[in-house]
Amino acid sequence: MELTQQILQYLLSGLSTGAIYALIGFGFAIIYNATSIINFAQGEFVMLGGMLSYFFSSVLKLPLPAAVVAAVLAATAGGVVFERLAIRPLKNATPLSLVIITIGGSILIRGLAMLAWGKDTHALPPFSGSEPIEVAGATILPQNLWIFGITVVIIVVNKLFFNYSITGKAMRACASNRRAAGLVGIDVRRMVLFSFVISSAMGSMAGIIIAPLTMTAYDVGIMLGLKGFCAAIIGGLSSGFGTVLGGLLLGVLESLGAGLISSGYKDAIAFIILLLILFIRPQGLFRKAETERV
Amino acid sequence: MKRAFVHFLILAVLVLIAPFLFKGGYLMNVLVFVGINTMLAVALNLLLGFAGQISLGHAAFFGLGAYSSGIMTATFGINPWPAMVFSAVAVMVLAFAVGFPILKLKGHYLAMATLGMGIIVYIVFNEAVALTGGPSGLSGIPSLALGKLVFDNDVKNFYLIWAFTLTTVLLSLNLVNSRVGRALRAIHDSEVAARVMGVNARLLKVQIFALSAFISAIAGSLYAHTMAFVSPASFGFNFSVELVTMVIIGGLGSIYGSLLGAALLTFLPEMLRAFQDYDIVIYGLILILMTMFMPGGLVRGIPAMIGSLRVRRGKEGEERA
């Protein structure tokens, strides 16, 4: 294979993992904007999506579309329970103890998944066959197309929701100033709950669409979660296009690094890029520098 | 100051008599790890609890110390003591160098950058197979020795490691009660205000980061020599998180708190082993509940609990009278 074709191949596969990182990063950003919490349990909802859809489709023998819907609903219910039991009761917690609580939550969810489904790796069938499609000399799997399609749909719906629906606008109001939002009659606690609903649904969807390509296990949430966090940080923790670009950039660079330099150092390359970005632009690539009020 | 001295003396006496109380065996082994983890937690607390700078990659410094000592002694046959000093200084210099760009960052960005640094180091441990032995680890690391005294069993290792731990505790107590300690707390409260008062915040943050890395590297060397074996799994992201947890559960900004936190989180998995696969679930649950109900950490939570018990008992007494 020629080098240009090879690079095209890496680009395509990088874009599809990048789309996944972007979806996970969105989840981080949405919860962060509503609550100022970095939810380290975000990766576990991604894992739950994959594992639950495997469970519904292979163990309970539901047809795949039904299994996917059931998995998203179940993972979202998990997100609601987590918010109710671990986040809402805390009133005056410091950001650090909130981080520890979400880490505790992620350990708990991972442990429960291990008890329920064991330590084995499971595969989810591709949504529509595994016949590779040729694109200008590179090949692409139908599942990659599903990933692109679903990601675009989710991002567009997300954009419409936050810009045009009354609930979405209320959530943005909470993000910019919680107290002011409360004063104009927005139920802030409800918006926080919604942010958990949206990000656990998005996270689980990301986990479902990638499961046929990479398989799934009880512990896949850690790395996927960290990469999603990476994407969100590059995007400046906004739930806009910064995070999408951050995810895609991370996915592509990682895939190019793995293909052209060394596959063992794939994850290291991703994090070195992240460090360089942070050193040069400490506020993320897509955010204007802020002056801090003392 | 006198009271602080008495506290430290009590701790030292407890350490001295512990092997006689527990008669060696399995518990001594756990206590060795409590010592190592205490060093690490105290080192991280200097950064996190006093200077207010988070690090989610401290396992990297611990691992670099362990691997550097391990490779120098097991592969190249260098004497362990100079190897330990060299490792610690090298790690400190490294931390000093990366500290400048990293500590410029704040909040979540700082968390992410230190996390990234930790993961990069972890991957290097896994991939540089020729040097580190890769995922299967590096074995045959010799025990430390002082003349004819070889530290080759749990009781000897216990005294060796706790000597280092007590030194770390003493020096840290001294440091946080000095001018530097006050400057660190000033940075914690407001970096700008600290700078206005004439504290060179940027340099001081990097210095404390390097000191913290230095202590962690020594703990790493000690770990390598007591275990005789190191593998990447001990130095991953999970361990970095565990260290932060020890500091927070123990109590931010309290040296003895770090000791309590390290002791609790080292004993907990051992005690939960009886629950087999359920241990990780219970561990997660305990983390959540402790953070919810003891936000100030053990060091503030336990006295508060005893205090509230006393108040209740006092009230009962009054009613009876």
Report on the structure:
The complex is a heterodimer of chains A (294) and B (321). In chain A, helix 3 packs across helix 8 (188-214), helix 5 (142-164) crosses helix 6 (166-176) and helix 6 packs across helix 8. Chain A contains eleven helices and two strands; from the N terminus they run H-H-H-H-E-E-H-H-H-H-H-H-H. A two-stranded antiparallel ribbon of chain A has the order 1-2. Chain A is mostly helical. Chain A has helices at residues 3-35, 42-59, 64-87, 95-117, 142-164, 166-176, 178-183, 188-214, 221-234, 241-260, 266-280, and strands at residues 133-135, 138-140. Chain A has one domain (3-128, 140-280): ABC transporter involved in vitamin B12 uptake, BtuC (Orthogonal Bundle). By secondary structure, chain B is an all-alpha fold. The radius of gyration of chain B is 20 Å and the shape is globular. Helices cover 78% and strands 2% of the residues of chain B. Chain B has one domain. In chain B, helix 3 packs parallel to helix 5 (107-127) and helix 7 packs antiparallel against helix 10. At the A-B interface, helix 4, helix 9 and helix 11 of A face helix 5, helix 11 and helix 13 of B.
Biggest chain-to-chain interface with counts: A-B, 48 and 44 residues
The CATH topology of chain A, please? ABC transporter involved in vitamin B12 uptake, BtuC
Average pLDDT rating of chain A: 86
Q: In DSSP terms, counting alpha (H) and pi (I) runs of 4 or more, how many helices of chain B?
A: 14
Indicate the radius of gyration of chain A in whole angstroms: 19 Å
Given as residue ranges, the uncertain stretches of chain B (5+ residues, pLDDT < 50) are none
Q: Tell me what the CATH architecture of chain A is.
A: Orthogonal Bundle
Fraction of helical residues of chain A: over 70%
3D shape of chain A: globular
As a whole number of angstroms, the C-alpha radius of gyration of chain B is 20 Å
Q: Give me the secondary-structure category of chain B.
A: mainly alpha
How many distinct domains of chain A?
Answer: 1
| Major beta-sheet overview of chain B | 2 strands, antiparallel
